[in-house]
Design brief:
Blueprint lengths: L27 H6 L4 E11 L2 E18 L2 E9 L9 E8 L2 E6 L2 E5 L4 E8 L2 E9 L3 E10 L12 E9 L3 H6 L11 E10 L6 E10 L1
């Protein structure tokens, strides 16, 4: 089984952002984005100096949870080759009129008033880069993970993992069914289950509630 390094079980990161008309006050962020999850698919493409090594696709989700005192935790879940999750993380940031900003370990994640997702950093010798956009209805996020080459190994020898999340709040069963093109992804319903998710800053694992597609 392929292991995606980055959050222990997974090598990725994700962010969510505000639309320009939702950032007028401190509480507008939570009012617009906390609560209902974004659901859909996640795809990973692994490349090296010679080109594409592997492509895989699975179920993905993202959700903001208010934690109090002007802070909110972003929980990202992805199941590509492991039904318990192998592409997810959690990170907590502060929100206000300027958007949402999280800094943990060597990673910084920012969501601006225009809905733009930006960030990056280095954790456990893995370099992250985050980009994308979000609106109250959908999220588009790309996370690139580049393992830092060992001293005796050229940088070109390292694999690069690119994760693309395509998530929506519209018709959650249909959104999660997009994870495969062979009809296997159809959901009878969505249920919350406890799954292990790691902090992207230090790798600490926690059991968190995530939406899961039931077939």
């Amino acid at each position: 089984m392929t292991t995606y390094r980055g959050i222990h079980m997974a090598a990725l990161g994700i962010a969510i952002a505000l639309s320009s008309n939702a950032c007028g006050s401190d509480g507008a962020f939570i009012d617009a984005y906390a609560g209902e999850p974004y659901l859909g698919s996640v795809r990973v493409v692994v490349t090296d100096a010679g080109g594409t090594v592997m492509r895989r696709r699975g179920e993905g989700s993202a959700q903001f949870e208010a934690t109090g005192r002007g802070q909110a935790r972003l929980v990202v879940y992805g199941a590509i080759e492991n039904k318990d999750g192998d592409a997810g993380f959690a990170i907590t940031g502060a929100y206000g009129p300027d958007g949402w900003t999280a800094e943990e370990g060597g990673v910084r994640l920012h969501i601006g008033p225009d809905g733009r997702i930006l960030g990056g950093g280095v954790v456990d010798d893995n370099r992250y880069s985050f980009s994308g956009s979000v609106s109250p209805g959908r999220m588009r996020l790309t996370v690139e993970l580049t393992p830092q080459a060992a001293a005796a190994q050229p940088a070109s020898a390292a694999n690069v993992f690119t994760f693309n999340y395509r998530l929506s709040r519209d018709r959650p069963e249909a959104a999660m069914a997009q994870r495969s093109g062979d009809g296997e992804g159809k959901c009878r319903s969505i249920r919350y289950e406890m799954r292990p998710v790691a902090s992207i800053g230090d790798g600490t694992m926690s059991m968190l509630r995530v939406p899961v597609c039931l077939k």
